[in-house]
Design goal:
The protein is of the alpha/beta class. It has 2 domains: 244 residues, Dihydropteroate synthase-like (TIM Barrel, Alpha-Beta Barrel), CATH 3.20.20.20; 89 residues, Sulfite Reductase Hemoprotein, domain 1 (2-Layer Sandwich). α3 runs parallel beside α4. It has an 8-stranded parallel sheet with strand order 8-7-6-5-4-3-10-9. The chain contains 12 helices and 15 strands.
């Protein structure tokens, strides 16, 4: 698929936009003032593959904690700020790598200029985050108190113009709604108007089950259309789960490679081994393996041999036994009770 060419922005040590890989983001759900707890969670997110992390900054105490957090983590830190230019200035002073703030919501032009001047000095980009739940009152009134994709884009353009008038263009934009249709429509509309990098997400997508489906369809559709430079999967869950889903979306579209990809069949009446248990065990065991490999766990001889040819390593089930194949060639025949152990032995050889 052909990705849309956008302006390249640097966030800490990571580039987003243009030819840079689509970056995976998440947001800590700890209290930012709990420095130890926040750092601990971010370390878990780093291990899962999070590349940019955002934290809430609701007050000055949280803002002053940012520097200590940044010193203890290895990925870019984004400060999420609403309404207060003073919190933004303190976050910049603490050394954050990006601000998430809407310039039209922080008061007078003088206050906006102070924030922009500080960001320019330290080369800190700003993400404009339009959310369907918090559109400006005049835009809502214009659209008969309905949140529309057109209104969301209008809001984004309003904030963009404020920054552009101050000659600031290190901008990232997001337009999030809790439904796929408005989210996709707004991103498509905005992508025709500006070339700034876009941060994708479906806001308030839901719990792990529903949120994974919503995000996979919404984010996946836009990425397939070539739109999007960073993504965050929003789930009512441990944020580590967000990162797992985000990576699976990127891997499924062939946009990024990371870790082991597991292919397994859905099972049917021909299956003669406990494939559901075996596939789940394999998936769990390979989670921590940081190698770009494709493994297949198949239940019978109908599709098994074909999938085995496509995979680096495969197990094809039979009646109480299984074949372990490498690059499509049979390595060994193993009793079902020893399949997982022998499979992992071969996987460790890669």
């Amino acid at each position: 698929m052909k990705r849309r060419k956008t302006r390249k922005i640097k966030v800490g040590k990571i580039f987003i936009g243009r030819d840079a890989p689509v970056a995976v983001q998440s947001m800590a759900n700890t209290k930012t003032t709990d420095i130890a707890g926040t750092v601990k969670q971010i370390k878990r997110l780093e291990k899962a593959g999070c590349e940019i992390i955002r934290v809430a900054v609701p007050d000055m105490e949280a803002a002053k904690a940012l520097g200590k957090i940044k010193k203890k983590i290895n990925i870019p830190l984004v400060a999420d700020i609403h309404f207060s230019h003073q919190l933004a200035l303190e976050a910049i002073n603490q050394g954050v790598d990006k601000l998430r703030i809407n310039p039209g919501n922080i008061g007078s032009r003088d206050k906006v200029e102070q924030v922009v001047k500080a960001c320019k000095k330290k080369k800190i980009p700003i993400r404009i985050g339009v959310n369907a739940g918090s559109l400006e009152k005049d835009i809502l009134a214009k659209h008969k108190n309905k949140v529309t994709a057109v209104g969301m884009v209008e809001s984004a353009m309003r904030h963009i113009k404020i920054l552009e008038k101050l000659n600031f263009r290190d901008i990232v934009i997001s337009l999030k709604a809790s439904d796929i249709e408005r989210t996709a429509e707004s991103y498509k509309m905005l992508s025709q108007k500006v070339n700034y990098p876009l941060h994708l997400g479906i806001t308030e997508a839901g719990t792990i089950f529903r949120g994974t489906i919503m995000s996979s369809i919404g984010i996946g559709h836009l990425l397939y259309e070539g739109i999007g430079d960073t993504i965050r999967v929003s789930l009512t869950a441990d944020p580590v789960e967000e990162v797992k889903v985000a990576w699976e979306i990127l891997r499924s579209l062939g946009l990024r490679k990371r870790g082991v990809t597991v292919t397994s069949c859905p099972t049917c009446g021909r299956t003669e081994i406990d494939l559901i248990k075996l596939a789940s065990q394999v998936e769990k065991l390979v989670e921590s393996i940081d190698k770009n490999l494709h493994v297949a766990v198949m239940g019978c001889v109908v599709n098994g041999p074909g999938e085995a040819r496509e995979a680096d390593l495969a197990v094809v089930g039979g009646k109480g036994v299984g074949l372990i194949c490498k690059y499509g060639k049979i390595l060994k025949k193993v009793e079902e009770k020893n399949l997982l152990k022998e499979f992992m032995k071969e996987l460790e050889k890669f």
